[in-house]
Model the fold of this input.
Amino acid sequence: MSAKASADRTLRGRVAVVGIGETDYYRHGASPDPEFKLALKAILAACSDAGIDPRDIDGFASYSEERSEASRLAAALGTRRLRAATMQWGGGGGGCCAAVANAAASIVAGLADCVVVFRSLAQGQYGRFGQTTNIDTISGEKAYLMPYGILAPPQRFAMRVRRYMHERGVSQEALRAIALASYHHAQANPRAVMYGKPLDPAKYDASRWIAEPFHLYDCCMENDGAAGLVLVPAERAGEFRNKPAYVLGAAVGSGYRAGAIPHNSPHYASAGFEPVAADLYAMAGLGPSDVGVVQCYENFTGGVVMALAEHGFFAPEEANDYLAFDNLVAPSGRLPLNTSGGNLAECYMHGFELVLEAVRQVRGTSTSQARRNDVAMVIGGPMVTPVSNLLLGSEATL
Amino acid sequence: MSGEATQTYLPQGLPIPVAEADGLSAPYWQGLHQNRLLVQRCRHCATWQFGPEWICHQCHALDPDWTEIEPHGRIFSWERVWHPSHAALRQHGPYLAVLVEIPHASGVRMIGNLLGDPAQVVYIGAAVEGVFEHHPHPERPYSLLHWRPSSAR
Ligand SMILES: [Zn+2]
Done:
């Protein structure tokens, strides 16, 4: 392959987010709207934010077994011509950045011109992730876990985090700092489900164990809602009313045999980002010191510790020092983290609320704005496979 | 040597493990029923593999053999579960689950419950031995493999 062809194979600076939108965020089961209607509302909000006619969307991208599928959306919205419909394999939030990457790739390859990336969830309508009653028999990976009481996500990930804490000497206080930062930022964010419900160290320490080493506040919420964004080619970014957030890089995947079940991945004590972080920085031509603000998917706080270390923000052995509350809060912490409240305290929208928050940071419109906001990172779904990540930047970073 | 549990560690009513429709893991579950721990080992390149797959991940020979191994190993990680994620577990917790590494099968790992006091201190690296637990369900009898601290090894 020629050097030129290789350089052409990038998302860097080729596409921009020009609209974002979300529904109200609800406790699980509290949405007055069914899931598909939530998806429609979020998409309409994102189009309105961009100032485009929803009929001009020509692609849809999502992840994590999204049920609001592209053809139904296109029919419902009167899409003039559907040209791209991509779904990322894998559950959890591992695909929240991959869905953006797939949409971006569709645009860069000339398959589509205006793609909506979104996620909708109504757990009241379709059942909660955190409850597993009414399963009669089970096969595959879960057959090796569920009969032993390893049923829901906290139990599936606690051992991985425990092993990491053991290998790397990570303290419970490092996990706590992540929860405190998310809740702190949520207090400034009226969209947040935990707005008006602050958390302090004593409340964290006194909270019940879900599965050691996870206290209640180490675990994501379960919520109803939807969130979406509008992605267009970079050359069109100036047509829209908001400051564009350009894709500087994205990467997807997992390490060697990360999917070996049950709990048999060779590199077990890992969030799975070592190869994926390297790909992201290579595409963007950036390193961790260039990143001003990070949104990192919190299924569980322990996964955030691993993911941040694997993205090079600190060595694992430095986690206890680095992961202190003051370092993690906007506007001027060393690395403002989850500035909307994230999955812990804004809304568990399978991480898509994190992608929207990264756009707000680049725009300068966050309710907890970071001082360094030219380059914003999103990290999707630590400890699942495949995982994904994303770097967004202002025009000045191109 | 391993023994058999007389009463089950967790209450009845949790999902019952069954082999996939294509039968991939059927030898494993049948083995547990007979107090035998079977894992895959490639007959061509001797690579150990668990969970099972239709192919050896090392040399790509299809249909790896099932080989019986002694059920003892070391605790690789653990968790103490307090929150009931299933109706059968309400009023039951806490309980302990361990991830056990099997050194004599190149470190393949498997999950079970750690028998004994659920409040016990658990040490990563501690030696454990397997305990087969049989569930005489009227329609779908099944067997599990738990672990307890090892006295001998
Ligand atoms: Zn082989």
In short: Chain B touches chain A at residues 10, 14-21, 25, 50-51, 57, 76-83, 85-89, 94-95, 97, 99, 108-113, 124, 140, 142, 144, 146 (CB under 8 Å).
